[in-house]
Specification:
4-stranded antiparallel β-sheet, alpha/beta, 6-stranded mixed β-sheet, ATP binding, about 25% strand, 10 strands, binds adenosine-5'-triphosphate, about 240 residues
């Protein structure tokens, strides 16, 4: 069964400190939906950073899209990253670009033509409730609005893997449901989704999702569910 992510005995330490992730072994099936939970400081963000290639592990093996990324040459990383949509906990919007241009960025990098970009970006901004704020710079948006721009940017190019760190931390429950629906829709088109969250209500909203629980850098996995590839083979449709 095809795994999009595979970890074998992965450990991570920052500098010479103690390991903050230890002995992580799991795989995620292509097309699956996972929540990543655990107390503050358990290592969720660090695990996500390994997934979107912001960090190399201190030990162990990580395969992404079937390739060993621990030894991946640096010059091949940008192409890998383009296959991954990331919602950062602190948004990381480009401050001098409008909401529209932030969301358009992944499509421009992929060489999509401007007419097609305009349709996709306007539709996406409307979906996240920001249709009237397209020309606004991030500094003039509220935290929740910035978070929605960040989500729109992460999903717009329909990445193969979506990694989201507390993506609903700044929005009300109604908007959280709407954003989650966006992730589910993307997932149904074939994107593998992993969402780190503290929000237990979110977990209940996606009944098909699996939960990975981290506790002090280790997988808390009594049922062994994480190691089981649950494939949801879904058609991969073209961008539009
Ligand atoms: N760049 C860094 N350098 C040193 N230590 C770090 C670094 N980033 C994180 N840590 C430490 O690693 C541990 C795990 O942090 P991480 O941010 O991954 O946890 P988390 O589960 O995402 O927490 P939260 O839910 O509060 O966001 C913490 O003890 C943190 O202090």
């Amino acid at each position: 069964m095809a795994s999009i992510v595979q970890f074998e005995n992965v450990g991570l330490r920052y500098g010479t400190g103690a390991e903050i992730l230890s002995d992580l072994s799991f795989s995620l099936a292509r097309g699956s939906f996972h929540f990543l939970t655990g107390p503050s400081g358990a290592g969720k963000t660090s695990l996500l950073r390994l997934l979107f290639l912001a960090q190399r592990p201190s030990r162990g093996l990580i395969r992404l899209f079937g390739e060993d990324i621990v030894t991946l040459p640096r010059d091949r990383m940008p192409l890998f990253r383009r296959r991954i949509g990331v919602v950062f906990q602190d948004f990381r919007l480009i401050p001098y670009l409008s909401a529209y241009d932030n969301v358009a960025l992944p499509l421009r990098v992929a060489g999509v033509d401007e007419a097609e970009i305009a349709t996709a970006v306007n539709e996406m901004l409307a979906w996240v409730g920001l249709g009237s704020r397209a020309s606004a710079r991030p500094a003039t948006l509220s935290g929740g609005e910035q978070q929605r721009v960040a989500i729109a940017r992460a999903v717009i190019a329909r990445p193969e893997l979506l990694v989201a760190d507390e993506p609903t931390g700044n929005v009300d429950p109604d908007m959280a449901g709407r954003l989650l629906y966006l992730f589910e829709a993307l997932n149904k088109l074939g994107t593998t989704v992993i969402v780190a969250t503290h929000d237990v209500h979110l977990l209940e909203r996606v009944p098909d999702a699996r939960t990975i629980r981290l506790d002090r850098g280790r997988l808390d996995d009594p049922a062994g569910i994480v190691r089981t590839d649950i494939a949801r083979p879904l058609p991969r449709r073209p961008l539009r």
